[in-house]
């Protein structure tokens, strides 16, 4: 019996570990629920709900293939090696297959499992790469180093994708025996309704195809306007591995065969977003210290944060007095999702206007996002805070009022999420709606203060430890 160990790869298609496991079958499958670990990792209740739904779809699909899915609860990753070894002995399993993950705790978990297996000499863990388009460590400069700037990283990726990377997704595995009925799965933790997002592979694929067929060609024009439904909405599915980045690019290429030659069109700009995700994953693997809360740019330790708990509370509640920031935070709090342009605006406001440590915002986002993904969340926050790899220059400080006027010109998005608050004020026209109202900080003052505080990053540019 072979064993497939599922993690954030809750799919049958394009799953190299599952594919190989079933080639060597018969196969069984296992998934570990780790409540204390998830709490440490700030996994959002809405993401746990999506996870539960996705697991049940996966379980049903595995059952059709005659594969039993065993769901075992342990508190933390530290409990997994012994539990996994015990399970394998009980079921006479010697080979375990899994797809690797990029985060520090996950990498250390796998090392601990392999060390235990090496000691007892009875099992082996075989790891595959299913999360990135290209293996971390393979996108390198001519000097053999990791790129520190996104654009040359992207160009190298495009060349590799054109020349030698096989983007053909792995097929779903063949049946391993007679169909069975796996029991339904309940994760007994706090959850928040996630039904706005697909949880099955088939529904996720349909969402991808709909985006490719009807929206991606206009993506470059519409993606920054939060009142429009112009983004793919695939982030939650990518975060849990219901679909892979490789599948997204493969099916995009079917519709746009010259995609990798690059023009400033919607499909290319969306591909860039997938490559930003890739960039942050490669950075995470090659700089594991940023997975432990450290700044990528070591000079950032000299930033003096104000860290006002009162201001942070107002930001979390969407009560800063800046309409676009407040509407965005309401969107996050109510729906578990926030438009990408608004993530940048809110992160910039917290770190630059309020001088609050980016780690506070990173944690809050992770605790609420249905698409919470450590590498992308960390990368985005460090970008906005000017502490990261290829970050926004420290002197570029978003003006939330101008952002509002530019990307929500008629105030449509603001009105969706601040309607009750706006009713308490006089009728606002499309110009007035963008103006701060009882703001917790004045923009010009906040900008000058931030420039002074962040000037510690000025000398000789980026440094990494």
From TrEMBL:
Keywords: Chromophore, FAD, Flavoprotein. Coiled coil: none annotated. Its cofactor is FAD; (6R)-5,10-methylene-5,6,7,8-tetrahydrofolate. The keyword Transport does not apply. It comes from the Bacteria. The keyword Flavoprotein applies. Residues 1-133 form the Photolyase/cryptochrome alpha/beta domain. Belongs to the DNA photolyase class-1 family. Belongs to the DNA photolyase family. This is Deoxyribodipyrimidine photo-lyase. It comes from Psychromonas marina. The lineage of its organism: Bacteria, Pseudomonadati, Pseudomonadota, Gammaproteobacteria, Alteromonadales. The gene is phrB.
